[in-house]
Amino acid sequence: MNRVQRSLIAALALALVGAGAFLLGRRSADVPQAAAPAAAASSGERKVLYWHDPMVPGQKFDKPGKSPFMDMQLQPVYADEAADAGVTISPQVQQNLGIRTAAVKRAEMASSFDAVGTVQFDERLSVVVQTRSAGYLERLAVRAPMQRVAKGQVLATVFAPEWLGALNEIVALQRAGAAPELLAAARERTRALSIPPELLRQAEESGVAQARYTLLAPASGVIAELGVREGMAVAPGMTLFRIAGLEKVWAVAEVPEAQALRLTRGQKVTAALQADPSRSFAGTLQEILPQVNAATRTLQARFELDNKAGTLTPGMLLRLQIAGASAARLVVPAEAVIRTGTRAVAIVRKDDGRFEPREIQLGADFGETLEVTAGLSEGEQVVASGQFLVDSEARLRSVLGSLAAAPAASAASAAPPATYMAQGKVESIEPDSITITHGPVPELKWPGMTMGFGKADPKAFADLKPGDSVHFEFRQGGPMDWELVSVHRLGGAK
Q: Do 322 and 376 belong to one domain?
């Protein structure tokens, strides 16, 4: 071995020693910050601004330690890294991808919720027709229940033989020219017997006692109760007919306890026929019945609806939209929110053009818009179209971090599993899976097909329903081989 060869071997040995020292330094740097946080912070080379959990980027901590969210150590964010936070996308790529932003704004919105109700008679409009004396029902004009009647319509003819004696007495006194005092006493007797004034007047004018009288409908409506048949004997106070009015009806709905506490008398409601949603009716809340259904934990709400046209009949099924109190709320387009099943994320566009994923808290759902209670400020710009592409890029840069919990040791060394995106339609939803008909997935060389995707949590994606068009992200794993990571409903909540 000559001198040149020995020199080369020595140089190679020194290089190997330097590489080992470098790897040792890297391995020691991977030790949890709790072991030596002060050294990194006090080195003077890089200034630590704060510590955070990569899986919950919105939370900042002023000192190192264990994350309160996951079983992992907090990661430092240095001053020279803070400027690089977020994702940068060139304007040309933004235009090609169709990335569109919308402003976070404050608007007057009224919270509302839907309920299902049934039509019932307004019991306040019910009237009864009774007999005034014993007799016989000679003629029955209305022969069937639920028959419509108008005010003043003839219902039946009753013969009351007990009235003949009193009426004949008046006729006899008139013919005999009796004193006025006697006639007045005889008339008082007819009133005591509940003889209609019409029969008394006819007897005095014609000189012939008449004990047949006609029953007329006191109000318009339907015959809710028919208590007699033609030819039957009737007794005093016997209910012959019960007429239910239809000018106004009740809509009775089961309302959850939490919603019932917010309702007040006089609150407006819009009702639509289940069989014909195009026909709607306006109404108001009359009262909340003081009785809770122990099985469903709901209360019955009674609404009054105008029914002068006679369209609504008892038993019809209605969809009720109950409006709440109007208030100024911070709202964003529903399509700008990414729901992962456990949290909601919005992609915020900063003033310098960067995009930052941010976890937000949602409030009421208004269909096309959603209320934001925390995480955003008025005037900020959020991505309303193409946010899935930005979110995927952010995940690659560890801004959002992994959505699944993993041990700290493996999270530092193992690469995150590959994820894929597709667009499709939800066919069915099960506790542990969702069946989706999706288009081709070029990365996996999949054609369009219908298949089931597993869920990490049975409560995940609770707001989805069959028929929704979705943009979703999935990965390999789970009991069904393929598992959903996130699902975004296209077009917002309907």
A: yes
pLDDT at 457 over 50: yes
Instruction: Tell me whether residue 366 is in a domain.
Output: yes
Q: Establish if 494 belongs to a structural domain.
A: no
Mean pLDDT value across residues 448-459: 86
Cα distance between residue 88 and residue 397, in whole Å: 11
* CATH number, residue 256: 2.40.30.170
Is 255 in contact with 297 (CB distance < 8 Å)? no
Using the structure block, give the residue that is written with the tokens 């069946």: 435
| Same domain flag for 230 and 323 | no
Same domain, 141 and 65: no
Cα distance between residue 425 and residue 464, in whole Å:
11
**Residues 225 and 165 both lie in one domain:** yes
pTM: 0.45
- Amino acid in position 307: N
| 103 and 201 both lie in a single domain | no
CATH of the domain at 415: 2.40.50.320
* Number of domains the chain is built from: 5
Q: What are 415's two structure tokens?
A: 């690469």
The verdict on 192 and 271 lying in the same domain is no
pLDDT tens for each residue of 13-55:
444 334 443 333 433 334 444 344 444 444 446 677 778 776 5
Domain span holding position 23? 1-30
Per-residue pLDDT at 242 exceeds 90: yes
Contacts of 265 (CB under 8 A, 6+ apart): 285, 286, 287
Measured CA to CA, the distance from residue 124 to residue 248 in angstroms comes to 10
pLDDT per position as a tens digit, 141-168:
998 999 999 999 999 988 888 888 778 7
pLDDT digits (tens, 9 = 90+) for 309-334: 888 889 999 998 887 666 788 888 88
Q: Please tell me the distance from the alpha carbon of residue 146 to that of residue 127, in angstroms, as a whole number.
A: 14
Residues 343 and 252 in one domain: yes
